[in-house]
Amino acid sequence: MSIRIGILGYGNLGKGVEIAVNAAPDMELAAVFTRRDPSSVQKQTAGVPVVSAAEAAAWKDRIDVLILGGGSATDLPEQTPQFAGIFNVVDSFDTHARIPEHFANVDRAAKEAGTIGIISCGWDPGMFSLARAYANAILPDGKDYTFWGKGVSQGHSDAIRRIKGVKNARQYTIPVEAALEAVRSGSDPELTTRQKHTRECFVVLEDGADAAAVEKEIKEMPNYFSDYDTTVHFISEEELLRNHSALPHGGFVFRTGSTGAAKEHRHIIEYKLTLDSNPEFTASVLTACARAAWRLQQEGQSGCRTMLDLPPAYLSERSAEDLRKHLL
Amino acid sequence: MSIRIGILGYGNLGKGVEIAVNAAPDMELAAVFTRRDPSSVQKQTAGVPVVSAAEAAAWKDRIDVLILGGGSATDLPEQTPQFAGIFNVVDSFDTHARIPEHFANVDRAAKEAGTIGIISCGWDPGMFSLARAYANAILPDGKDYTFWGKGVSQGHSDAIRRIKGVKNARQYTIPVEAALEAVRSGSDPELTTRQKHTRECFVVLEDGADAAAVEKEIKEMPNYFSDYDTTVHFISEEELLRNHSALPHGGFVFRTGSTGAAKEHRHIIEYKLTLDSNPEFTASVLTACARAAWRLQQEGQSGCRTMLDLPPAYLSERSAEDLRKHLL
User: Fold this and answer.
1) Is the whole-model pTM more than 0.95?
2) How close B252 comes to chain A (CA, Å)?
3) Interface pTM (ipTM) of the complex?
4) Does the CB of A60 have a partner CB in chain B at under 8 Å?
């Protein structure tokens, strides 16, 4: 029997979940829920109903896990606890500082309803968290490094778009190769913000805007750019759409540590992602976590979980026997 | 209260466990068990008793988890089920083809005794298995690659030592850089055995041995060398001991896969280990798994597990709250 998946929110992430569910042999897409007018939503999968989010509760017995495609700023803090009261839910909440609070809210709602809520699934938080957790458990005496990119930062692109005179923009976060090599050398470097990443911006100006003033405003923007070496390119909107419409991303998690009676042995653990599509990869992680949510609830468990709590085998459609035989 | 660890077998792996337990804030080393004469064992940690393996059962209430340092060929198939009848146990059983049988034997013994047995902990099987399992669950449409090295293969070194005229030898397995780059390019290459790894041998001859004959016998040895490009260096025993006594190892696990309505987006997951000491790193993984074994039994669970079954947070000495707040 297939696991019946619902999707709430049909943006980039929701569309990625649709692709991942269709690629999973043990799942079927049961419904897409939207806060927009359902008739305005163009789905990729034929025959799947698009339903108003307000009517979701009526689908309680037809959905095994609801995957939330909303954003961390305003959607998920409200939606994840709310829908955990009805369904098993999975989200990609990524505001690191607010995770404990979000966890507590989802845990309360899920325990009351007897459901499972898995929060903060994706790659950071998510796969990068797993890489950090395993590496810290194995090498307690060591040092962590996380690098992001090369990839598009939506937050930084948005920040540029808010500048007067800017029509459109795309910002790439780029790890500094020399910093990666310093970490890989095992020399435990102390790295400043500027030494770890550079920022490259492709900007389309409004007619008559002052390029020099825009460039200065970008480079001096606190938090976003002032601590980085930033390059600004002014290009046409046609070039931006042609060459910078994709959403690649990725990054690196390292832990370097020592063992030995005199700490004489160095070890380096490196986990690296190179992703053509940030939302589709994130959606693939969410979908694997939905499988785990369903299994945990079938066992009679309830409450909030993160990927750090999930037995890895629960993410796989393969049986534990099969994994042991062919993959261990 | 500390987790009380016992070690069975005081070779390279057992000594590595001793180091890892001493580095763990929540563990203490309670005893070392040996099949040798206990008075012949020189421990690094003062005050810890060395006990004959035959008397281990008397330690049932003084040991929370027994970590087995034995080999997969003859020690562990017998010892792990036997001691799972007394203690929670952790081993590094690495004969991939015999894992299902070993699992069944340990599972039976552990369920009968109400203990937990975690088998095949280390890096391959172990961390590499986890990398494969997660990546397969996330990217079901993809391709796996595992490379080993650069590192010392004990099995291949032993095979050379068995050749007539060879006094001592050390063999390094080396991944081919061009093959790694082909995988990282996302081109999904089909790679032969010869294209993935080379083998480099450092050989000390007996007096009067025929170097050309030894080199030919190494290079033509089926399974071990005949499918590889192999280099043989003849060196003095003094040079071998000076430059080739360490046990470095490591390797790479890749999964490359696609998502998208038309499979148009490529993703590359890479997990890489660079280890100065293969036995000490393996021992560090075993020690983290001992923590998980103890927690699972405290929950009332019993039976056999592998790392694929362990919630990652159970490997860490930090609380779930702490991990969520600082590391997720």
Assistant:
1) yes
2) 9
3) 0.96
4) no
